[in-house]
Amino acid sequence: MGIVKSRYSSFRKRLVLTLEQRNRHHLKEGILIAIEGIDGAGKTTQAERLRSTLTEQGYDAVVFHEPTTGEWGRKIAALGMNGRGLEVDEEFKYFYEDRKEDVARNINPALQKKQLVIMDRYYFSNMAYQGERGLDSAEIEKANLDFSPKPTLIILLEIPAKEAMQRIKRYRNGPKNHFEERLSRVGKMFRRISKNRRDVKKVDATKPLESVNSTILSLVRPILKELE
Asked: Are 135 and 89 in contact (CB under 8 A)?
């Protein structure tokens, strides 16, 4: 009886593994999708939801967050409360160096493995945040494209600055930080730099989480089908 049970268990495991392999999706090449928007727009939540959904559907998907937790990423985190006196060129340098490390250590290796890479912020945020402070957004993009893979799709989560701040306050008490003080102006910059760009798709982030997730999936699926 024990032998029969053992054989059945082994057969069942092989069957499950075979079914899982059949349900896996293999991409012809890696895909990079960036989720962007002002603080409080829900980027982290939607990036994780997208990864979770696609993983369940058999895709090899990963999420990388910027700023990272590396040396430059920690410096950026400190800017929130201590960066008001920092020149915009120096501020951009922090993000630029942090991204260089992220591309080399995480993004490029994942794309080489033909994974679906989901970015929770990418250089489009620099175009808006440092662009709002006076840097040329086009030059910011050009500088990043010297070493950063260009996203196949940029999803811009749109939300009024007032509502975004209300969301932020639910999770953190205290005064606005250096970046949150500029949300209204940065939101306008996001809208300006996204005009006439076919690689940018705007999504209403004020809607319920499931609705936003469904809209994002509807934008991503055609890209996946093309590369399967």
From this structure: yes
**CATH code of the domain in which 41 resides:** 3.40.50.300
The pLDDT tens digits of the residues spanning 73-85 come to 999 888 866 656 7
Residue keyed to tokens 């999770």: 171
Distance of alpha carbon 213 from alpha carbon 113, whole angstroms: 25
In a domain, 222, yes or no: yes
Domain that holds residue 137: 28-226
* Separation between Cα atoms, residue 218 and residue 191, nearest integer Å: 21
95: phi then psi, degrees, rounded to nearest 5: -65, -40
Whole-structure pTM over 0.85, yes or no?
A: yes
Beta-carbon neighbour count of residue 55 at 10 Å? 13
Note whether residue 219 is domain-resident: yes
Rounded to an integer, what distance in angstroms lies between the CA atom of residue 179 and that of residue 93?
16
Phi, psi of 116 (to 5 degrees): -90, 110
Kindly state whether residue 2 falls inside one of the protein's structural domains: no
Q: How many CB atoms lie within 10 A of CB 58?
A: 14
In a domain, 190, yes or no: yes
